[in-house]
Amino acid sequence: MDDETMQGTWQYSTSHSSTCKVIEEQTLWGQTICRIWLPNQDVVVRVPKSTLKTLATQSHPEIEQAHIAYVAAAAKVSEVLEGSFSGSDGNVLLAPMESRVIPLPHQIHALSRAISGDRIRYLLADEVGLGKTVEAGLILRELKLRGLVKRTLVVAPKSIAMQWIAEMNTHFNETFALINPGDLDALERLERPERMFNTESSKEYNPWLKFPQAVVTLDAVKPLTKRRGWSKEKIRGYNLNRYEKLVHGQWDLIIVDESHRLGGSTEQVARFKLGQGLAEASPYLLLLSATPHQGKSDSFARLMSLLDPMTFPDEESVTQARVSEFVIRTEKRKAVTSQGKPLFIPRTTRTQKINLQKNQKQVDLYNDHQLS
Predict the structure, then answer these.
(1) What SS3 class is residue 109?
(2) Which helix (H) or strand (E) segment is 328 a member of?
(3) b/e per residue, 316-347, with b = 16+ CB within 10 A?
(4) Angle value at C-alpha 252, between 73 and 191, nearest 5 degrees
(5) Higher confidence at residue 117 or residue 259?
(6) What is the spatial distance between Cα 358 and Cα 141, in angstroms, rounded to a whole number?
(7) CA distance 68 to 40
(8) N or C, which terminus of the chain has less Cβ within 10 Å?
């Protein structure tokens, strides 16, 4: 046996492209053979010691940690499929097994964390390109399969509203209707011709209840306080179906994409008022944004207050420890495939020296700009 044994340690098997645990080492005729356990296959095999590497030398230890977490979650799903796992366990993930998408490790992690408690009010803040829409869809499906959600509202910018409808249908077989709030006035007149717009009887009628799953565009439903040439009565009539009845639509889950737009520059901004109304309109709330902070602490504090106004009553209350309980975020450098390999090519930075003598015109232009 070698002096430095790896027995009982976690290693990386280059032969299997997977993490493994060393059970035993044996040296014979100068060659060391290790018996290892592969958790993703649940098998014990023998490999040459030379094919094993320490996790620290993989240059991406955080990737290995994410991969181990993914393997553990995938093993639990596999046990459920085989019928060997107790269905009474509240942590069993159902959505990955019946959706049309194969979730990536970080997406399973987001789902697992989101449904781990009773309070499902989170900011999904993955970097661009990591599939926040899929994460929100998985959470939606999980809540529906558990009988916790029936009515869902998605609020998104106009440019990606149709994308939401397509992805929910393609990946999760969920049908959403794209609602133009301006059409609801006409719908009300057609269904209730005896009622004139903005009467007391009209207020009792809520057209949003006709749509169990709806997508609306962000600026189409924000409340107005004034508009040039409009009377107060016209403003109230405009807000009735677009905002007041919307927030009284008995939603179980509300999802807001590009949610950093709700922060606004002040508490009086219409988008922030919309956010406050939506936050109070549903027990479950998912805010999606790849850039939630944007260097504006006051706006970020208002955004976090939508998730829990008691925890974030002011800007001073927004600390890293408190925010971490409400934010689910994966960076591209930590994202991995189901095989534990980097999902994106790692970035490398290097200093490029510039010969200033050959670029004197650029130097003069820069100096002139600095002086001005």
Answers:
(1) helix
(2) strand 327-328
(3) ebbeeeebeebbbbbebebbbebebeebeeee
(4) 140
(5) 259
(6) 61
(7) 9
(8) C
CA pair distance 81, 12, nearest whole angstrom: 28
Selection from 184, 186, 179, 247 nearest residue 213 by Cα? 179
- CB 341 within 8 Å of CB 17: yes
Main-chain phi, psi angles of 333, to 5 degrees: -70, -15
Rounded Cα distance, 86 and 89, in Å = 6
Tokens standing for residue 78: 């596999």
State how far Cα 22 lies from the chain centre: 36
Q: Which residues contact 17 (CB under 8 A, 6 or more apart)?
A: 339, 340, 341
* Residue with the two structure tokens 């495939």: 337
Is the pLDDT confidence value at 87 over 50?
no
What is the C-alpha separation between 298 and 289, in angstroms, rounded? Answer: 16
Whole-angstrom distance, CA of residue 161 vs CA of residue 261: 15
Tell me the range of 190-194, 310-314, 368-372 where mean pLDDT is highest.
310-314
* CA–CA distance, 312 with 249 (Å, rounded to integer): 26
Report pLDDT for 278.
95
Burial (CB count <10 Å: 0-12, 13-18, 19+), residue 4:
exposed
Query: Any idea which of 6-20, 56-70, 138-152, 256-270 has the lowest mean pLDDT?
Result: 56-70
Q: Which amino acid is at 160?
A: I
Q: In this structure, are residues 59 and 77 in contact, taking their beta carbons and an 8 Å threshold?
A: no
CB 300 within 8 A of CB 262: no
For residue 124 the two structure tokens come to: 């999904």
Tens digits of residue pLDDT in 121-133 = 999 999 999 999 9
What does the alpha-carbon distance between residue 236 and residue 234 come to, in Å, rounded to a whole number? 5
Q: pTM of the prediction? A: 0.69
- At residue 84, the pLDDT reads 41
DSSP symbols for 152-190: EEEEE-GGGHHHHHHHHHHHH----EE--HHHHHHHHHH
The Cα 305–Cα 318 span in angstroms is 9
DSSP 8-state assignment for residue 261: G
User: Can you tell me the distance from the alpha carbon of 366 to that of 95, in angstroms, rounded to the nearest whole number?
Assistant: 56
